[in-house]
Sequence to fold (1950 residues):
Amino acid sequence: MQPFLKSVAKTFVDNLGPQIREYCFVFPNKRSSLFFKKYLTECFDTPFFSPGLTTVSELFGSLSELVTYNKVMLLHTLYKVYMECLPDSTETFDSFIYWGDILLNDFDDIDKYLVDAESLYRNIKDLKELDDIFSLGDFTENQKRALESFWGVVVKEPGKMGKNTKSFLNMWDSLYPIYRKFREQLYAQGGGYEGMIFRMVADSIADDEAFEAGILPKLNRYRKIVFVGLNALNECEKRLMRKLRNLGKGDFYWDYQTPELKDEDNSSSRFMKENVREFTSFYPIEYEVNVNHPEINVVSFSSSTASAKYTGTLLRELKSDNKNEDLFNTCIVLPDESLLFPLLSSIPEEVEKVNVTMGYSLSNSNVASLFLNLYSLRQGMRELSSGPSFYYRNVMDIISHPIVKRLHREFCERTIKEIISKNMVYVPLTMLSEIEPLFRGGQDIAEYLLGAIDFITGNEASNNIERLEREFVLAYQKNINLLSTILADTKVTSSTFFKLLSQLTSLTSIPFTGEPLAGVQIMGPLETRALDFDNVIILSMNDGVFPSRSISNSIIPYNLRKGFGLPTYEYQDSIGAYHFYRSLSRAKRVWLMSDTSSQGGRTSEESRYIKQLEYHHRFVLNRYTVSSAVSMIMENNIIFHKNQSILEKLMKQEYSPSAISLYRDCPVRFYFQYIENLREDDEVREEIGADIFGSLFHKAMELIYTDDNSAHHREKRYIESIVDKAFLDILMMKSEDIRGRNLVIRELLKRYVTYTLEADRLVGGLVVMKTEKVYKCRFCVDAQKELIVTLKGIVDRIDSTEIGNRVVDYKTGRVNVKTGIEPKHLDQLYFYLLLLTAPENRILPGIDRVTLDIFYVREGYRKSYREAVPSEESFNAFKEEMKETLLEILNPDADFIMTDDLTKCGYCPFKDICNR
Amino acid sequence: MLKIYNASAGSGKTYTLTREYLKMLFSRVDNVDHYKSVLAVTFTNKATDEMKQRILGELFKLSEGKSPHIQSLMQLPELIEEFPDQSLRGSFIKKRARKLLVRILNDYTYFNVSTIDSFFQQITRAFAREIGYYSSYTTEIDTDAAIESAIGTLMESLDTEPNLLKKVLEISFGRIEEGKGYDVIPALADLSKELFKEEFKVKVNGREEQIFSQDKIDAYINDVNKKWEEVRKRIIDTGKDICRQMDVEELSPDLFRGKSKSGFGLFASLAQGEPLLPTKTMLATIEKDASEWLAKGVKRSVSPVLEKMVREAVEQLPALNSDFNSFMALKTNINTLVLLATLRKLIEAYCKENNLILLSDTTQFLRNIIDGSDTPFIYERVGTRIENYLLDEFQDTSALQWCNFKPLIDESVGCSDSLIVGDVKQSIYRFRGSDYTLMKDELAKDYPGADFIRLENNYRSRETVVNFNNRFFSSLSNLPDSDISQIYTREQVFQKLPEGRAKGEGSVEINFIPHSVQKELSATRAAAWIDIIGESLIGKIKEFREMGYDMSDMAILVRTNAEGGLISDFLIKNGLSIVTDDSLLVGSAASVRQVVATLSSIDNPSDNIVRYMHKGEYPQITESSLYGICEEIIESLDEKLKEEVPFLQAFMDNVNSYMSNNGSDIRGFLEWWEGKASNISISIPTGKNTIRVITVHKSKGLEFPIVFIPFLKDSFRSPSRIRWINISEFNIKNAMEDLEIVPIKMNKNLENSEFSNIYQEEKQKEMLDTLNVWYVGFTRPCDHLVVWAFPDKDPEGNPYSCVANMLYSYCKSDPDLDFQSVSSAGNPQGTETVMVGKRAKCSGAEKAQVQSNTITPFNAYERIPIGERLELAFKGDEFYASSNEGELKNSRLRGVALHSIFESIATSDDVDYAISKAVNDGIIRQQDVRDTRITVMERIRSVEERGWFSDQVQLINETPILTPEGDDYRPDRVMIYPDHKVVVVDYKFGRKKVSEYHRQVENYVRLIREMGYDNVEGYIWYSDGPVQISTSTI
Fold:
């Protein structure tokens, strides 16, 4: 079927030939002009100079002397005007942005629809006075409090109004002056917002003299100006078009061909009648259009990723249906732009050419994340005893960032290792000399970020930067330039600067090149304007996405909007409907895909358009549901057999109590840890978890009992110094670096240490003999087979007391039994007993006059040890169990198998391997 | 007129709602737009969708003359008045239906069917707009992130706020003394959650700072501690005194009656400070004369002194115990209160910072704004006036929500029809704040003149199922508890079969698993029940399939997601395909876990666990976006892992939505995922061959031909939530008046305390909640219900300890039910089975709706990189090309900047415009303007004699050269001289000279010659000046 634009192109080439150069064609957007150009070339057989091809807003721009300012620039100017008009306001630029955006939007509408701003704003003010909640004297305390805490507005009695309230009241008064001054200000600077530019042009048109002098010469560059495929027109556009029509210089072509678009009950037809009546076409064109309904497939998914992946499958089918085509006849519409990424990784290889009109959003790039990291780094800088230092997490984020890493790989890897091995919570600048510009920077945040860019791009190694990344860096640099220009005379904090920068970044996208006029076309609903495709695939057919939920961003009440002829939500709805129905006009096959999963408050409602097709227009819909078989990998059944080298390793292994208990918990875990040497990676510990807490406590106790100054043990200050020393030894943390939550940990440690010392004081004749010493001994597992292994353990403490010796262990974990010692812990103490009584060590001559003691730190407030007296019988039983376990470990036929007890898997670092 | 429908399960509630909605629309003969003034409120988004679909569907059918509702509409008095003639009326309805349908479809925004939350949202937002404030805010349902951030900020501020540190330490030490962990964060997080609960909101109402001021709490803590210590001391003293006396008399506890179980060990415990109560044995002993206290054969006696002491102690103990428990309860959570106001403020700050508003705050806000006024002016701001209201699932409304809604209903009651529908028996969302007493009691009180209607029929279930449920659930009215017995009365429960329904169809089967089997297995694994009933369940599924039912006709109802997970795993292992709404957690899939693990080691690829999982390799990462990186990792997974398609897809959905809101910050994503992973589950659409696994909560409102309940036990738990009490309402000795409101965490000890009433009340409500859940569960089946119940050891002796026991006791008591001890296939030995009805496919059983075709196109997660098919438009190369050859003073003003400035210069008049445009585009900074201008002017001057920027030449920059091949050439500058000489120039500022550029310009020259211009010159303009391209060779 001949596309709409082709019909128009053909008509003009047939009638004008190369003289078409003297015409200018105006389209709703760039994309449609591109397609039109393609159709033109198809009608020629020699090179030719193109006619003028432009869009409506470009046309207006070219008729005006003003530069269209970008939004941040506009907001900043508006802010300055706002503050001038409301000098009492305490609003910061940062918080003004939301509010300013609404004002700007309204100004734009007011101008485009040629509304008398003064009378409109007077009306708003009157309306406010009638029912302004702030002027109601009978505001109750509750209501006031609610307003205050909810919106952060201070509400006071009239007459005693706070600053904010007053400025709220003044604001309605000031809206018009703000509007006026803002435009004056912009005009003086030589720029404006789109609506303002439109209106200036429209004003010049109304004024004959201005028109002759300013506008007409520019229009006279062309013989005729032809408007193609427009739909909703604002008043400025209409004025220009009428003028051109009256001068005989205008020509107009509309795409309202199918019955649905002509159906007056269908909101898509809203603008048709007026447009067609007022602006008629010079050449009568017979457009081709669907006689029958296209084939419509409604496909529902329970995942948006799935819908993107399925689109790939469809493309594969379409491609194999028409082998020679490059699928230029196929269009994928993405009402939800975030589906671009999933879609781009789903297009089958055989589809060789792809074109995307949407860009790659800068904020999704790793460059944006690098700059975010740089910003956090700066915020987290501290002057420490060792000079300017940075929070390690921020430093790690930067030196592990792909871009930085590629530039200075060796340095980065070395530094990561160093930070981890030294457990540096704060990293001094001196350690980062090689990439200093990323860390040092000037006072000014913009200079700092630009300096970082210079470093990244200007560096000799910068050839290592991917082209893609360089592109992002460029876009980022532009934003910084822009912002520092705008804010040149305004003082803002770094955080405001960065917030604004992030806003700019989120608005920035990098265009794709691709094949604009070949291959599958991927676009948003707005870009489908005036284009026709055989196959149309629309994703996210959910109400609220397509059509999008129209949240009015305006302070002009609905009724006034309507009264003054400003667009309302119905207007938005009509435009959306027009895009939808028009894109179906010449399609042969259509797929409408909706996401039925409702997560995170998103609605899963099918788009109203589907319901309209079904009930209003009575299309036949083929409905499909796409699902996937739920195959789920159950836990891996992991078994390791013991080969010779494993057995050798096992013989050489020094067995500690934790190794034994680990094996008893789960042989596979034992295998990973001791045979494969897999370990959770080291990381810097700054927040103290249970394990570090234990180490700190052990360390503190060791320090105390290896210190000869036992006289000081009761002193608070002494304990304090010991705890600080433990922090330094274990965490490399100086006392001034202990902050936040760790302060709580420090206090707790002090208290626990004090409890322990108090408990010790109750033990008669206590002499601490050894602390935290490593002992080893040989242990015969099986005399016949000559199986002898080495046992090893660190004994927390060995004491001598009035009644003999005791083996002491501290436990910082949870206590699970109410009385006595937990069996597992008792085993551990027996293990130590075994080591200490072994002939190699002979620390204890035997088990007589020995007690086994555990200090459960969690119940430290009881200030007492739990104690067990070892018996020969249980000691032997313990040894037998040890032998049994070791025998199994060393048994070549006993495989390493997974434990049955799933509770053991909770905190196992290998559970992802087993999938438990 | 207000109509209040009491709609038991299956009574055609949706049908009624739709009918009433249609009647409201059609009764306005003269106003086709009346739909704008009707608001229907449903409980969930899903229900909203279905309601809309239903109304549209019926309108469509009406327009075709096919809807069953036509009868009710024909009888509308308004229509009869307007069209006395029946056939005219009929055709009006048809035409009007069509008109309404089309109108609504094209004005969908005003089709007011919404959830109560989104309705309130709409109003709050309108209100925000009125005061012109931050109307772009987002609404956040999840409070965890806010809480976490607030606590984080609190912790960070400890080094500068010694006062806070002191408080935190006090809490921490307090916890240690109570034998809890030292970490205060969980306690703070728990308490913070209370901030969002209704009871707290209602009672405290934003007055945290006043109520929980430091001074008040300090005084209060002192007071409570003192009192608690006093009681404790009295208990210890009592114990010690008696122990001493027993020692004196050489009596040990095992010498008393009952020996080791005599209960006289009590006093030793008391002496330790453990506040126990006398055991039954001991009480029985004391009943007797002191001479009989000792065990038989013990040749000693109890002295009168000891007797007196014991008797006194036993008399006093209940009171002491009660005081002990009361004060303990009062002191337990009090420490954290001090920080509550601080946390509240931090949470508010977090919300402001992120421009979001917590959903739970909205309701409260509206309530405060309405503040009891009759005419809630805020509702007028929404725009349209609502005249008719339809509220569905009213039993799930919360008190605050109702507070906000009631004024609206009140206003409409006088003039228009409104409608409330609900069923107290199906109130199962109390944990989310819903308040069933609104439906049960309040409505009747508030609207005595309303029309109360009970829907009597059950259109859903077969006779056997209806009868069984009628009898079982009405037996609950015998319960001692008042609320339950009031709710499950015979007249509330009994449902009738609609006329014309076949008799005797359907079946109910209940298998009671003997307690002995349960015990044996449950000792080793929590999941043991699947081992017990799994085989039998599979057998039943097969049996029903053989009767002609599809898999999709069956649903398995579970109580929790965890149970659902177990059942799902089991079924999948047995080769059945399943559908589940929430049992399959995305985060628990092996593939997803591996992706997350890999992602989290990305800044340290030396992580050897991840390397091991990837078979010794660490995946190569080349992508730049978070989404791309995740897909690359997925690609590197084992083929088998990639088959977990729905999990990976759902995971990527989350990755993508995170990225579009927050960018590609990997660490940020991991933190977010850690918090979310346990909540996100996959949803899979139904297919003909899939069986559905669903929690009872989610099954509300649904129906299935066959329902299996594989695990029914549900012991009634003792309540454990926190209640906020007004302390002055309690008779605590010397009431601590300083604090108005105190948190009391429910626990069993409160049974004997000042707070026993609230404890009992909570306990009963918990019981009602549980029973309601099973009322919902048992009423889901249309045809057949199969239950596996797990009663306790002596179910009849203790009927009220769990639902399974209640069911068992009922079955035993109903003379019509037979117990068969034949254990049907797969059930363990000793299973007792009750079976009623006919096990056959029911006569009228048909599919509820036509299923759409299901396709399953994915076998594995596939990533197809777009690669070189799509590239970004690169400009950076030119921009960052080393600029040694550029003589520019400012190193940042590079070639591309000049290029783009020159692009907008036609004549030298345009220089300033071009430069300000460059500033506006961020290409240069304002401070660079001067230098730039000098450079640009120098350049222009350097070609002055060539006349390039004079008015002499006609510039045709904007018109590219097109060729029939479809190519499009766009030289930087094309000038036509008055003598028809054409000059074409390409700018290559800041570039090295490359012959490729020459060919480009040669081509331009050739094309222009082809267009009929004879004299054409081509130039390349490098930074050191233009170079003419020799074109003689062409």
Remarks:
- Residues 882-892 of chain B have pLDDT under 50 and may be disordered.
